[in-house]
């Protein structure tokens, strides 16, 4: 990993030059941040778990024909991905009221929404990722109207898949954030899913106990963050019961 040139340093992930043109290596760190980086901790083993959970989800999405940047996992913390041009938007899909929606609209957390809702935020740390409308996105050229159509149908397909996947293991998918990119192949360009899908970017509630199994444990100082992420991985069948990702590394069961 040290031999490769780092081309981007993020809060929870770094990107390195890939082995071939058009590829990158995505490295999952143990860093957790919240409140625009005001809160920062190292959570031992988080990166390993997110790498595995995101690999699991992206592999299944690829199999379903939902295009992603994911090629394959390389090791405990790295995955090989296709280089894309990131669209500067955070795309949030919500099924149940939580987080900023609750504050903004005065809803009660946990209220089922009348239908799934897609929101867009402009990716700009200095501006604290402001919420934007389709009008802003197309007027400022962050995405074209046809790209926005593709982004929204991709978001809906990912939501349908994830909702069923998590429901099957007793977890309610409350909301999640995705990022998308433009993949150039020859003369063609298409919108693909990029970044990661993990408990860092989803709200996941245990259906029976209502326990939070996601980054809200960190944001709200609830403790047991890595344990909750490991629970998600174990329920998905990625980690064997009692497997300890911190000391032995995850064992592959399939
Ligand atoms: N989210 C994220 N990164 C961000 C902001 C939000 O992954 O920078 C995810 C968050 O984990 C949740 C969803 O997007 O699953 C909706 O987040 P919300 O807008 O409620 O913001 P928050 O309350 O997390 O500030």
Describe this entry's structure for a reader.
The protein has 254 residues and is an alpha+beta fold. It folds into two domains: 6-83 and 233-252, Phosphorylase Kinase, domain 1 (2-Layer Sandwich), CATH 3.30.200.20; 85-206, 2-Layer Sandwich (D-amino Acid Aminotransferase, Chain A, domain 1), CATH 3.30.470.20. The protein contains six helices and 14 strands. It has helices at 46-63, 99-105, 134-139, 145-167, 216-219, 225-235, and strands at residues 6-9, 13-17, 23-28, 31-34, 39-42, 70-73, 78-82, 85-86, 89-96, 112-122, 131-132, 171-185, 188-194, 202-206. Strands 8, 9, 10, 11, 12, 13 and 14 form a seven-stranded antiparallel β-sheet that branches. A five-stranded antiparallel β-sheet has the order 1-2-3-7-6, covered by helices on one side. The protein has a two-stranded antiparallel ribbon with strand order 4-5. Strand 10 and strand 11 (131-132) form a beta hairpin. Helix 1 runs parallel beside helix 6. The chain starts with 5 loop residues before the first strand and ends in a 19-residue tail after the last helix. The site of uridine-5'-diphosphate has 14 residues, from strand 9, helix 2, strand 12 and strand 14.
